[in-house]
Design brief:
Radius of gyration: 23 Å
Mean pLDDT: 89
Number of domains: 2
Number of helices: 14
Shape: globular
Oligomer: single chain
């Protein structure tokens, strides 16, 4: 296969993952923040046995407990299948009743859910193509649910469960062996990943880590990348005192950057000048190294910036890393030899 073909396949996979996970971002954020609030209160000494505390945890983690249903539903929709049948594929994977068959509900995680959703949609479409008109309403769902259900339980779940375990073990081992250095490198690479949209490809890994060990250090490293940019942007506010247009762009992008949405700062502030984009990555590396040293992570994904205070435990570790990263991004950017009082266009020239 040529490099061009490889690139096309790779882009297709990334785009597919984006289409599957992007619609799920709101419930993941909402649930993650609610669960994070409960965990944060618990870390401050609030009794986790209180009814309202149990309610917070139950409400918040519901979307993570049944994420396979949403993933399988969107996977089926991706190739033109009936989304609700995709949801059924996810339900088959998650159903507690399968534990009575010696199977583990949810095994295979979102990787298995993606394949399950694609499978049930593929079978449904094939059956619909040859089903008699009188049976077009009944035959496709009957065969797709039955056939895919058997394959999901006895083929997809065992294989993807093994794959998910291997992937999780690899990431954990990488962070354990590489320590702060590995965490620094990963944090430094997150901004380029966000810039290209490739960070969506990490969603299954985040979710698998949370399901296996209770937190994703990768998600926290993602937050450090955003903090590095915030620091770089603050430095640029000082360096471009007389460029009101550019300062207004920075002021508009900074609040959402602090809340964990980095694209406005990437495309509107740091990347056009290039060197501040690099110093933001270096700032992220400093924070990433500290995260690796302290060895903690987030219990939810798609929540970063200051909001991730609610999803990272211990809270003080996250605050320390976030502040240090902002300072590092600020410091590195202040060292740049950028014209302080000229426009961005002049600086680029």
């Amino acid at each position: 296969m040529s490099n061009k073909s490889n690139k096309k396949v790779f882009n297709t996979i990334i785009n597919a993952l984006s289409e599957i996970f992007t619609p799920i971002i709101p419930p993941l954020i909402g649930g993650g923040l609610v669960a994070g609030l409960g965990k944060m209160l618990q870390s401050f000494g609030v009794d986790p046995e209180l009814i309202w505390m149990k309610a917070l945890i139950a409400i918040g983690f519901s979307v993570y407990a049944y994420i396979n249903i949403l993933v399988a539903m969107n996977s089926a929709k991706l190739i033109g299948g009936t989304p609700m049948l995709g949801a059924v594929a996810g339900m088959i994977m998650t159903n507690p009743a399968i534990s009575g068959m010696g199977l583990t509900p949810g095994r295979g995680g979102v990787i298995g859910a993606i394949i399950a959703g694609l499978l049930i949609a593929f079978i449904e479409k094939k059956v619909r193509s040859f089903a008699p008109k009188a049976l077009k309403v009944h035959l496709p769902p009957l065969i797709s649910v039955l056939l895919s259900g058997i394959i999901i339980l006895f083929v997809i779940m065992p294989i993807t469960g093994w794959m998910a375990d291997g992937l999780t073990s690899f990431v954990i081992k990488l962070l354990e062996v590489g320590g702060p250095l590995a965490s620094a490198v990963i944090a430094a690479l997150f901004l380029p990943l966000v810039m290209t949209g490739l960070h969506h490809g990490l969603s299954p890994i985040h979710l698998q880590l949370i399901d296996t060990i209770g937190f994703s250090q990768l998600q926290t490293l993602n937050s450090m990348a955003g903090a590095g940019q915030v620091g770089a942007a603050l430095a640029l506010l000082i360096k471009y005192k007389k460029d009101e247009n550019f300062r207004n762009i920075i002021k508009g992008a900074l609040p959402v950057g602090i809340l964990g949405i980095g694209e406005p700062l990437i495309y509107g502030v740091t990347l056009p000048l290039l060197s501040p984009f690099i110093t933001a990555c270096l700032g992220a590396a400093v924070g990433g190294a500290l995260v690796g040293l302290l060895n903690f992570g987030a219990s939810a994904i798609y929540v970063s910036g200051i909001l991730a205070i609610a999803t990272n435990t211990p809270v003080l570790y996250y605050i320390l890393c976030y502040v240090v990263t902002i300072v590092a991004g600020f410091g590195f950017t202040m060292l740049l030899k950028l014209p302080k009082n000229e426009s961005v266009n002049e600086a680029q020239e």
